[in-house]
Amino acid sequence: MSDVTPVNHDRPARARIKGLVTRAASWRPRRHEHAPPTADTGARPTGPDEDGAATGRQEAAPLRPEQSVLWRMRTTVRDEPGTLAALCTALAHRRVDILSLQTHPLADGTVDEFLLRAPQEATAAELTRAIARAGGCDTWIERADTHDLVDAPTRILGLATRTALDAAELPLALRQLLGRCTIRSLPAKAAGAAPVEGGFDDTELRLRTPEGGLITVERPYLPFTPTEFARARALVELDTRLGPRVPRGQDVLTLPEGNEITVRRADPSDVAAAKEMHERCSQRTLSMRYHGPVGDADRYLNHLLSPRFGRTLAAQTASGRIAALGHLLWDGDETEIALLVEDGWQRRGVGSELLGRLVAMAVEAGCESVYAVTQASNTGMVAAMRGLGLPLDYQIEEGTLVITARLDATPVASRLPYEQDAQA
What we know:
Elements: E1 68-77, H1 83-92, E2 97-106, E3 109-119, H2 124-133, E4 137-143, H3 152-165, H4 170-178, E5 182-186, E6 199-201, E7 204-208, E8 214-218, H5 226-242, E9 250-254, E10 260-266, H6 271-280, H7 283-290, H8 298-304, E11 310-316, E12 322-331, E13 334-341, H9 350-364, E14 369-375, H10 379-386, E15 392-397, E16 400-406, H11 417-423
Antiparallel strand pairs: 1-3, 1-4, 2-3, 5-8, 6-7, 7-8, 9-10, 10-11, 11-12, 12-13, 14-16, 15-16
Helix pairs in contact: 3-4, 3-5, 4-5
């Protein structure tokens, strides 16, 4: 739900404007600061053991799951024999169980990444201090959950499979591979000055796309490693070799009034039909969707229908004309939802049907929330969002309304048409 000017991708993440913003100056704004790490990553004293951990402590009974919490920890050590053993000993003294370990070689050291099960009373600061005394530096730690128990090779293979099935999965796969991060896609023209081979600098990755564009990944709270860059580049190379692809299943629905309509995934091959639908829409309908006059539709429909920037569903009539479009747009570390329904098909349940399916997609993609930007007078969109039955937050300024639906509160059943087709 935005105007059509591409976003300024060069601005730093921490300089984004907080709160509600209008869409007059950017493609899809960043309305919130990127969430900082939840755990303490501050100073790491090197003095005496403040927690009273003594070497040679008698081995304690193993922790039961209900007595423990999971942590993800990453620390840098010298690439010397015995450094890993020192870390393991320091954790063992605090009854911390190491569930998994990955190593990321650096030019002048090694980054060790742990999944830990620790006693409930152990704090992030205490664990960080223990690691610092054992020789670790630049330590980062945050709470984990049971999803992190899947080993890295299995998780990466799963992400590769999802990417192979659907080109729109690439940004989501990168986000799940690299953790909390902001992902932006630049078209080929905007990315012309970027390095041809991509690369990474500390907290930013740059990955070339098949059509010559650029994907940038920012993670200000944790520097990237060469291993992570190699994994991300491998996913992009897989996507490049497979070429454009969108699941082709469809679902035929009967509306309350008896008309049948087909819901399917849309892609750039639908640009001509989508433009024809725009030409049939009234100026009021287009203004509700785009918050102002609509010029050359070709300029932005190629963007909206590209799987690089999200997923699009089309509602198609029995005659083959597109009557409505619904978009799920990857907006950095947020997800925007947008609808456009042709005048003659409004108030007939088409928009609500598309909206429910888009929310189901967002849930399956692991999104915590979706937001819609519209005019305060757009009662149809407001009613459709309320019809989801999800907790909603409203922000309004100068007639522009932002409605955010929280997806972690109520599960939404899968309504993807191509899944039903695959199971038939």
